[in-house]
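Suppose you are handed only two things: the residues of a chain and a line of SMILES describing nicotinamide-adenine-dinucleotide. What would the bound structure be? This form records exactly that question and the answer produced for it, so the two can be stored side by side and reused later without any lookup.

QUESTION INPUTS
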Amino acid sequence: MKRTTHRRNPAAHHGSDVLFRRPISRREFLRISAACTALPLMSCGHMLRGPGPNERLQLAKIAVGGMGESDLQELSGHPGVTFIGLCDVDARGKEKLAGKYPNATWFSDWREMLAKLGDRIDGVSISTPDHMHAPIAMTAMQMGKHVYCQKPLGHSALENRRLAEFAKAHPKLVTQMGTQRSAAIGRRQQLQLLREGAVGKFREIHAWSDRPAGWWPQGEKRPPGSETPPAWLSWDLFLGVAPERPYLSNRYTPFNWRGTYDFGCGALGDMGCHIMDYPFLAAKLGYPVSVRCDATDATDDEYPTKETITLQYESTDMTVPGGIKVVWYDGGLRPKNSSLGIPDDVDVRGNAIVVVGEKGSMLCPLDPERDKSGAIVLTDEPQVWNTEKGKLGLKLPALERRNHWHHWVDGCFGKSVPEANFAFAGLLCESLSVGAAASRFANRDLKYDAAAIAFSNEPAATSILQKPYRAGWKVEGL
Ligand SMILES: NC(=O)c1ccc[n+]([C@@H]2O[C@H](COP(=O)([O-])OP(=O)(O)OC[C@H]3O[C@@H](n4cnc5c(N)ncnc54)[C@H](O)[C@@H]3O)[C@@H](O)[C@H]2O)c1
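ANSWER OUTPUT
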């Protein structure tokens, strides 16, 4: 769904009704905190409650608005799935979905839901804003639940690292980040061709997005003022681990939180996982060794409106020696085609990635673009320009269609291994968190000390890369 204007009016996004009432009271806070300290944080081997061959997978959904509604529909479209718990801090979701999930109990606090239904839940799907992904995913995994979590996986570098480590250490847990485009045939062809050497060893990777302009606010100062949250919203639960700030209507929730440091990762976090995942995987990249963001208008509260972020990595057996750089452009910036080995008349607007290799360059637009008549004017199939032969007529591998959500469900039944599992997604998203952190120290060369999860020449960044949680929100393992 293309958004051309900021969605600052939540009523335009949700129906209106009244259910949840007020900011959480101290008494309720203490009750829920007590329930949460009682969450069974055991080793997954003990807790895993995978479905038997004839059983259904019992799922809980955290966040049902926006992408959460799509996730809910897609997952419940799998014949083996039953939702037994639904949770949203915006009570209007319950009314909107009334009657659709008769086996589900509704909650406003995910901690209470996990505490109450934990022994019946096999897996959870998380579609909250970015800042709550890791706290919920880590808690669920520690309870032995399979997890489908929206992208980007974590908000901070440390969160991404810990989620990846936990997933690797507990291979029976089936995990998937919500990069549904990675199931598209064109994208999987891209991965296969890159691995087979279509451009030779990788020299550079360049990726860009047309966002944030026109999609959500970014590059603005922290807005002044304070409003009483509406009765249908639990603002304190929306904030979750984030520092306290006053509620403002049409400003953060729904959708407009993306450009705010405390809640989102800017355009890089929003689109980077979709665009960069397979080239990153094919190149076998690890942690970045350095990063630089070129931008001019980051503020005290939001990422810049446009930026170029250059991440440097050590070489792998898929790259040329001497290291490889990955450059991200957003807000309408992008490199000239000719600098990437692609003819100038090729249309590469929107969101795309180019892998420049020793034998040629591969272009992969994220989505196909159509003209007014519906004809495809830009394909999402990979295209390769060879340095000697020009554009290659590629024989694209024949691949079967795949549903990204169902692939995860099938994984929970032991029938598939999702590619966007957390071991990979955490590694990829750590780079995005490092890039997003660099936006706040723009126009400086920063050295990333992966062992310490810190910039060795900018100690002030540690509180971003390893951000602290609000008092009362300690999450084991993060
Ligand atoms: N894969 C994709 O193509 C895609 C597309 C859009 C969004 N997303 C991702 O989905 C996530 C949500 O984005 P969105 O655009 O739907 O945002 P949104 O603000 O429109 O919707 C978020 C929903 O989460 C609810 N929520 C917020 N905090 C919550 C909490 N602590 N517990 C329960 N519910 C909570 C909100 O009330 C709302 O219903 C983000 O991580 C985003 O990156 C992915």
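WHAT STANDS OUT: Residues 62-68, 87-90, 93, 110, 127-130, 132, 150-151, 178, 180, 237-238, 240, 253-255, 270 surround nicotinamide-adenine-dinucleotide (CB under 6 Å). The first strand starts at residue 57 and ends at 62.
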